[in-house]
Amino acid sequence: MKKIHLGIFDIHTPNQMTQGLWTHPANQSTRYKELAFWIELAQVLERGKFDFMFFADSYGYPHHKRELSYREAVYTPSNDPMLVISALAASTKHLAFVTTASPVYELPFPNARRFSTLDHLTNGRIGWNVVATGGISGAESFGRSGILPHDERYEQAEEFMEASYKLLEGSWEDDAVIADRGRRIYADADKVHVIQHSGKYYKMTASHASEPSIQRTPVLFQAGSSDRGRDFAAKHAEGVFLKAPTIEALRAQVQDIRKRAAAYGRGEGEIKIFTGLSTVVGRTREEAERKLAEYKAHRSREAALLTYENATGIDLSALDPDAPFEQIKTEQGRTHTERYTKHSGKVQSVREVSDNFAEKEFRGIVIAGTAEEIADQMQYWVEETGIDGFNLERYVLPGTHIDFVDHVVPELQRRGMFRQEYEEDTLRERLFGKGNTRLPNTHTGAAYRFSNS
Ligand SMILES: Cc1cc2nc3c(=O)[nH]c(=O)nc-3n(C[C@H](O)[C@H](O)[C@H](O)COP(=O)(O)O)c2cc1C
């Protein structure tokens, strides 16, 4: 049986996935600003032999509806997730960490230095989620008048990757560091190359600040499933987070990415595909469903619709509920417009879309049941779609993940679907096998390696 990979998908704010759930008495998510909170969670996940902990990130909040945003904590307040990672690495041995850094806001040089630093400090347990962020609320904070059009953001992301590969793969040769006390030579300057980059979005003359780390390029993830997003994923991503409304749509997206990856000369299995999974575990199905209903009672519909607007630019509450939801154009994120158009298989009304979104928000597959039922469903989705793993989503923190680790993980292990022990050290090896610490030669980033020939 195919062994799966598991991560959790979280964010450093009180609310995620179900707006309003921060008010649930069992939810400790308002502790998101405490180091101890994240350490406790990381240790739970390491006990459950999880592959990684993934932190989404974004700047800004839906500032056109300030009162609602602050009242319901819709993406605000939020902290920088990157800063907690070295502390989490120190309190775990194996768990890896993936965090978002967006080409829309960051610059290649400091970004590469941060990831190299984390790769050193975590001993290769770091991944980078590259997103062509669509939300406009952060743009003004960076002095911009707005965001670039959708496909142009991916063009910008392409150039960001090129500049990053030059720094991470092409600046320092493997033997540049000599560290010979006797000869008083730390590094050989002839083997540290100056990168010249002059493109449409970025200009840079620099040597990479950090010496080579174990993985060099952090494991690359991507999370946009628009047409352009999938092409970007097929070229760059080693891990892809996909969400689709039906099993058929997910299967089609998985096949599409793998086909596009082959066209970029990448081998079978060079991309691991994850989908979102929300679980509620009970001793019986009824108990789990009761628990889920209790979580749902804490929802805020108005806050949920605001997150839709923030992601897509579309205010569902301002549209005629009986109008068909079609011919939708957005320059923000398209994953969640196409979910109700291209990938839904039928024309839905605005009311149907609003109801569905308020019910599910950005969640992936939702399963409430016993550990056996959850494992059955997970197995079914893997077999039917060809995905490689799941990204677990919170209802309440840390309770949702403690339940999963205590009850579902042993069931997956019993079926041979999940590791009993950690076997590899770096994140890339965990996903692609021992010895694969660096980007494979077939990856586009490998072309930027320094070569004497
Ligand atoms: C699992 C997952 C994680 C995501 N993480 C982030 C994130 O951290 N920051 C962000 O701005 N967008 C994030 N997104 C949103 C997508 O990257 C978003 O769709 C993006 O705007 C890409 O555009 P596209 O969907 O039109 O391709 C995430 C999406 C998914 C499914």
Textual characterization of the structure:
This protein has a single domain, classed as Luciferase-like domain (TIM Barrel, Alpha-Beta Barrel). Helices cover 36% and strands 15% of the residues. The protein contains 14 helices and 13 strands. β5 and β6 form a beta hairpin. The protein binds flavin mononucleotide. Flavin mononucleotide (FMN) binds next to loops. The site of flavin mononucleotide (FMN) has 25 residues, from loops. This is FMN-dependent oxidoreductase, nitrilotriacetate monooxygenase family. InterPro entries: Diverse_substr_monoxygenases, Luciferase-like_dom, Luciferase-like_sf, NTA_MOA.
Describe how the helices and strands are arranged.
Blueprint: E1 5-11, H1 35-47, E2 52-56, H2 66-71, H3 85-90, E3 96-101, H4 108-122, E4 126-130, H5 150-170, E5 177-180, E6 185-187, E7 195-198, E8 203-206, E9 219-222, H6 227-236, E10 239-242, H7 247-263, E11 272-281, H8 285-296, H9 301-312, H10 335-338, H11 350-360, E12 365-369, H12 371-385, E13 389-393, H13 399-414, H14 427-432
Parallel strand pairs: 1-2, 1-13, 2-3, 3-4, 4-9, 9-10, 10-11, 11-12, 11-13
Antiparallel strand pairs: 5-6, 7-8
Helix pairs in contact: 4-5, 5-6, 6-7, 9-11, 12-13
The chain binds flavin mononucleotide.
Residues 9, 56-58, 100, 102, 129, 131-135, 150, 223-226, 229, 241, 243, 276, 333-335, 391 line the site of flavin mononucleotide.
Keywords: Flavoprotein, FMN, Monooxygenase, Oxidoreductase
Domain Luciferase-like: 27-388
InterPro entries: Diverse_substr_monoxygenases, Luciferase-like_dom, Luciferase-like_sf, NTA_MOA
